[in-house]
């Protein structure tokens, strides 16, 4: 971009020359050992990171190539193609593995965010904490789902930290369930924000696990879900992905909370009917006993639920 400061343009130029292994004999800039000619006024993402904003138009040849290599996918209705971690760039031909070692599983830090300044600013302020307190040691890819994040917003998030970000467009995020229509009373009563929130909740409850980014490769896939406004209050020195894989766990969580009665109306009654039909006793597992507390004997439930703003999930089990 022409309006970028000289220092920023120099950083990008040096990174491009290094990537292409181009030797420059005479120039009006200097690339030193770390690839920076002039100290930038703001943190500039690497060239590989900048490739996160690159999407290619859908073509039959590219779709077939990505399908065959497993490096990405194409979305017909959006006329675009996207790369899966660690691939980037044209035809998803470049590897951006960061400093991560080769692992027998795939781990992804995952969130979803609307293209609104308030939410983008909040997420951008939490990304440096994620890097400083965890990801600088383990360097897992951060997968950001959205329903129309602009290139400017993507660049804003890329500049926030050294995390490796990948962006994925959800073309059908706000497709309503079959029993609802846009002119129904329930939808008319809802606000735009609540519609978007409900759409995200529906997507996270099932379709998320079937997204092709989590089925790429032949290794188990794990998700560490972070709401965009979630942050790490302290340093994490151990790798939760590694712990889950080594101990064959399928789910991890941080804390319990009490759900609003209006949000869980009828939930426990339907759950009891299902459990009875499958012969599942109320005290079958430690997790059930913890959720019900004293109600494990009486069948009462006081709304205690696992809060899902930060949770770990093994994809194949949930899909």
Tell me what you see in this structure.
The protein is an alpha/beta fold and 319 residues long. The protein is built from twelve helices and twelve strands. Strands 7-6-5-8-12-9 form a six-stranded mixed β-sheet. A two-stranded antiparallel sheet has the order 1-2. The chain starts with 5 loop residues before the first helix and ends with a helix.
Q: Which strands sit side by side, in order, in the main sheet?
A: 7-6-5-8-12-9
User: Roughly what is the average pLDDT, rounded to an integer?
Assistant: 83
**DSSP, total strands:** 12
Class derived from helix and strand content: alpha/beta
Overall geometry comes to elongated
Rg, Å, rounded:
23 Å
**H/E series, N to C?**
HHHEEEEEHEHEHHEHEEHHHEEH
| Sheet of most strands | 6 strands, mixed
SS strand fraction: 15-25%
Q: Count of helical segments?
A: 12
The residue ranges in which pLDDT falls below 50 over 5 or more consecutive positions are 33-42, 187-194
The helix content, as a percent range, equals 25-40%
Distance between the termini: 42 Å
